[in-house]
Structure formats: C-alpha cells, structure tokens
C-alpha cells in the first residue's frame, strides 16, 4: 500500500514537472511572439517612412516657407504618422513578415512554403 502511494506521488511529481516545463515554454514562446510582432511593425513603419520621404521628394516645395525647421518638422511628422499607420495594419507587410518568421505550431505542421 505504501509503495503504491510512493509510486503515485512520484508519477504526480513527474507529471507536474513536465506540465510546468511545457507551460514555461509556451509562456516564453508567447513573449517571443509579442516581440516578433512589434519588430515586424517597426520594420513596416521604417519601410513606410522611406516610402513617404521618397513620395515627398516628388512634390514641388512651396517658396512661401522654405526652411530647415520645416523639413525637420515634416520628417518628424512622417515618422510618427508611419508608426501609427503600421500599428493600424499599414499595408500588410508586418503581418506577412510575422507569419513567415514565427515559429510554426508543432501541432499543425503546416508549411507556408510553396510545394
């Protein structure tokens, strides 16, 4: 009877340790996914900012106010606007990068690569 109880306790401890290890790995993976998603959004914001700068170069500048302060203010405005655009979904670049870079779910094993 006592040996049976010891074996049950040992099994319970092993199951708990295994479960704890799995949950810890899931939590770490979730934290990594949050970092990856944020990094992808930041990259999309940089891309949109470069695109916005090049688009502004194509528009003729006004002769009314022509100063370096205006250029600085415009670049800061573009940087913040493109960050907000990326957070709101942007052009979909961040989502596409995130889907390509995240670690695949071991249960699904679905590859996104063309066959």
From TrEMBL:
Enumerate the spans annotated as Flagellar protein FlgJ N-terminal domain. 54-100
- Which residue stretches does the UniProt record annotate as biased composition, category Basic and acidic residues? 12-33
- What superkingdom heads the lineage? Bacteria
Q: Composition bias, kind Polar residues: at what positions?
A: 1-10
| InterPro entries according to UniProt | Flagellar_prot_FlgJ_N (IPR019301)
Region Disordered, annotated ranges: 1-33
* Pfam families reported in the protein's UniProt record: Rod-binding
Q: Which residues form a coiled coil?
A: none
State the name under which the record lists this protein. Answer: Rod-binding protein
Organism for this UniProt entry: Pelosinus baikalensis
């Amino acid at each position: 009877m006592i040996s049976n109880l010891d074996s049950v306790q040992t099994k319970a401890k092993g199951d708990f340790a295994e479960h704890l290890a799995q949950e810890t790995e899931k939590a770490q993976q979730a934290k990594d996914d949050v970092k990856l998603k944020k990094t992808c959004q930041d990259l999309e914001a940089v891309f949109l900012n470069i695109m916005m700068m090049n688009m502004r170069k194509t528009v003729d500048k006004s002769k009314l106010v022509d100063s370096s302060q205006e250029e600085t203010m415009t670049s800061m405005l573009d940087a913040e606007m493109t960050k907000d655009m990326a957070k709101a979904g942007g052009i979909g670049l961040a989502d596409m990068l995130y889907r390509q870079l995240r670690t695949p779910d071991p249960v699904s094993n679905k590859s996104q690569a063309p066959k």
